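forwarding from the other thread:

> can someone predict this with fe (ii) ion?

sure thing
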Amino acid sequence: MSEAVRTMMRMDAEAAQETAAQADAGFLWDFWYPAVRSTAIRGQKLVTAMLLEVPLVLGRTSEGKVFAMRDSCPHRGIPLSYGQLDGKVVECCYHGWRFDACSGQCVEIPSLSSQDKLKVERIFAGHYPCEERDGYVWVYMNSPGTRLPETIPAAPGLTVFSDKYKITHLSCELPSHIDHGIIGLMDPAHGPFVHQSWFWRKRGSIHEKAKQFEPIPNGFRMSPHSPSTNSAPYQLLKKITGEAVTTTIDFLLPNIRTEEDRSGKMWFSSRATVTPVRRDLCRIVFVAAWNLFFLPVSIFKIFGKIFLRQDQETMIRQAEGLQHNPRLMLIDDADRPAKWYFALKSNLMESRRTGAPMVHPMDGPVTLRWRS
Ligand code: FES
Ligand SMILES: [Fe+2]
């Protein structure tokens, strides 16, 4: 066996190990994840991000199309982000190999002589489908070592209910595994303790609630209902429009929570995603749009940041406790959404493994009761 072949094999073995490690991390592949804000990618700048432990380099071609490549040169692994983009092609900083930014295909190896038979066009840098939605660049993370499917679904977009609206974005990092990030996001019982504030709700206002949930493909929905009487913003909205407020909250695999609030012609729509960056770090990306004339973006941002910060501080404290591998509990009914999340995730993985249709963990609408 030639030395070159042996080297290649060693590299393949390393790639296989990496794939196995990523499989163990509990990530859901073959979904869209938000990587960076659209505004972060300007001119010929190369921007780095990490999703599901994959280092990425993102940029924008001179035609304005965003692209995402694995931030690793297929020649010797140096991050491509140290290289240069000329508007169409990314050039590695080490030996100058050049890659088409949108397909990852190698277009030039400067060191090749006229004698060389190497087929440059057969070499590819890792690349991922990329789309812009609601001010974010989304990247479709297909499982390591697999080919892209023939058709990939469109990246998720935020639902809006009128032509004119305000929109804003917030994000924060949590030092947590994705599963803790997600169950924290859907957990109804922490509200009165973590998010106690004069503008949201007081601990003393805790009371019994009953909410109906129903299964939807790849997730579940808190059926349309009137929001809590102990949340000031909803009460204000009701006063202003004089009409009932209806809220619908969905959770969708792998990581999306959407909320739509409507009252007469007024609406508010938001989407939060919790995306794994590494197995010990995830990022909440939050986008909200509304046509409520009395709610300026600046005010919303102030409150939104306080809210996210409260979650973040709690998760930092939780991470401290989780270092010691404690046993944990999920109780009914307050933690039932978390149980559904785990069941949805493992049923999806199982159906992908066997090719059998995915079994939904809920067999119909159910009412959950808790105090919050
Ligand atoms: S490492 Fe990129 S061209 Fe050699
Ligand atoms: Fe929270």
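Residues 73, 75-76, 78, 92, 94-95, 97 surround FE2/S2 (inorganic) cluster (ligand 1) (CB under 6 Å). thats all i got for now
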